[in-house]
Amino acid sequence: xxxxxxxxxxxxxxxxxxxxxxxxxxxxxxxxxxxxxxxxxxxxxxxxxxxxxxxxxxxxxxxxxxxxxxxxxxxxxxxxxxxxxxxxxxxxxxxxxxxxxxxxxxxxxxxxxxxxxxxxxxxxxxxxxxxxxxxxxxxxxxxxxxxxxxxxxxxxxxxxxxxxxxxxxxxxxxxxxxxxxxxxxxxx
Length: 188
Fold this sequence. Notes:
Layout: E1 3-10, E2 13-20, H1 25-32, E3 51-54, E4 57-60, E5 73-75, H2 87-94, H3 104-117, H4 123-130, H5 141-156
Parallel strand pairs: 1-5
Antiparallel strand pairs: 1-2, 3-4, 3-5
Helix pairs in contact: 2-5, 4-5
C-alpha cells in the first residue's frame, strides 16, 4: 500500500490516519471513521448523494480523494443533529421531502449550504440551487418546500449557522491531541 498520512477535522473532531493515496473521501468517512450517513450513489460525481461540505462548500466525496481532505474541515450529515433534530431535518420530515431517504443526506447538506449563502431564498432560487442533487422519488416539489420551510424556521428561531460556515481551513501543521473527547477513542 502506498500510504499517505493525513490529518483532517470531521464534524469538529480531529483525525489523523494513514490512507492509501487512491482512497476516496466517501470511503474514508464510511470505512475509516464509521460515519455512514454519507451515501454512495453513482460513483461518478453526478447524483449528489455523497455530498459533504469541505470548508463550508459542497463537494462530491465519491470523486474526491481522502488525501485532498488533508488539513481541511469536513462536515457530514451526522453534524446536523445534536440530540434534537435540526430545523432542516424537521422540515424535510414534516414536508415529506424524503421518501426512500437515499438522497437525503446529500440534500440536507446542499440545502444547508444554500441557506448559509442566502437565508431567505425564493422558490426559484432553491429550485435552481438544489438541482445539483438528484432524487428519483419526490419530484423535488416536497424538497423545495422543505428547504423553504427550514429557511423560515431558521430565520424565525435564529437557527444554527450552516455547518462549516464559521470554519477556517486547518493549519499547515495540525495539532493532534492523543485523546480527543468524544472522538475515535469512544468508538473502540
